[in-house]
Amino acid sequence: MKRAIIAVVLVSVAAPGLFAQVREPFKLGAFEEGGRVFLGLVVRDSLVANIAQANAALEGAKPAIPADMRELIVRYEELKPRLYTIAAAATAAAASGGRPAYLKDVKSVKILPPVMPKTVLNAASNYAEHDAEMQRRANPNQPPAPQAPVPEPIPGAWERKPGDVRQNPYLFPKLSSTIIADGEAIRIPVGRERVDWECELAVVIGRPASRVPVERAAEYIFGYTLQNDVSDRGGRADRRYGSDWFLQKSHDTFAPLGPFIVPKEFVTDPQKLGQKFTLSGNVMQDSSTDRMTHNVYEMLSYASNIISLAPADIISMGSPAGVGTARATPIFMKHGDVAVCTIERIGTLTNPVVGSAAVTSGR
User: Fold this and answer.
1) For residue 124, how far is the Cα from the chain centroid?
2) Under CATH, which number does the domain 120-140+149-361 receive?
3) Cβ-based neighbours of 322, under 8 Å, separated by 6 or more
4) Mean predicted confidence (pLDDT) in 243-265
5) Nearest to 135 by CA among 159, 157, 167
6) Is the dihedral of CA 104, 46, 178, 330 positive or negative?
7) Start-end ranges of CATH 3.90.850.10 in the chain?
8) Rounded mean pLDDT of 56-70?
9) What is the CA radius of gyration of the chain?
10) pTM: predicted TM-score of the whole model, two decimal places
């Protein structure tokens, strides 16, 4: 028995390329250490391997490692065997108590946004319960509306199958300049104190996508991450053109993203993931991605019928019920709060909240 264990250890040390056959789950992210940015592979949410350094240190074929996440996504199928090798070697090193130079504690490095997409799209009212709570907020003294008629299809963008009685999908753009990383502060804008949360699953696009059928949408997904779709509920003080999505959704810091990306092969079913948001330790949202009105594949298909999606673009799938503005007594984020969005198997995104007085003073 001892000889067998020793043999396994020797094989793992001598031929780490064999680890490529092992599907050790991992996540991918961007990090900074000593002023240098690197792509990292995260195992067990606690250790990060510098991919370039690990690639150089381990035996086997040494493909060129990309400098940014977008290129890694584009080349993922080519790089996947090497990433599996790195993940397995990192896990084995951690289990043995060893710590090669390429392996760091996640807490010892700075986490950056895992990707900086060119396009960010967010779903609106994609959970029936959230749609209902926002309708009640808008019309608090009116009885519930009767069942809405089945909408017409959207020519060229969304065709309806027989028996589909759902509302049409709804997406809006959110500026990529809103993106911040795990651990960075959500800053309440000056004069805009009604700032809300929305804990959301976000899809990362893996390949160019244009007019993708729903049935093939999974082929265009690289992986999944989290977004807190921070929202300004203060309104624009007039009724011009209805809702002002730019004012509501695109202030600086209004899109915490990450902390990491989970490649899709490690997510068995994106529609069966627990979803929770806490504000300073108090549970505000507690739901599941199975409550979505339109699933991730339908939303990707719909978006791709309007614009051409590129690798590393993001589609955030909307918020479950439990936002602050829809409560009998509204609750909004304030200075000193900590916003925590958690989605099962994907991770936990944590951001402190800084009030407008601190923003004004430059703190």
Assistant:
1) 16
2) 3.90.850.10
3) 130, 133, 277, 284, 285, 286, 287
4) 96
5) 167
6) negative
7) 120-140+149-361
8) 96
9) 22
10) 0.90
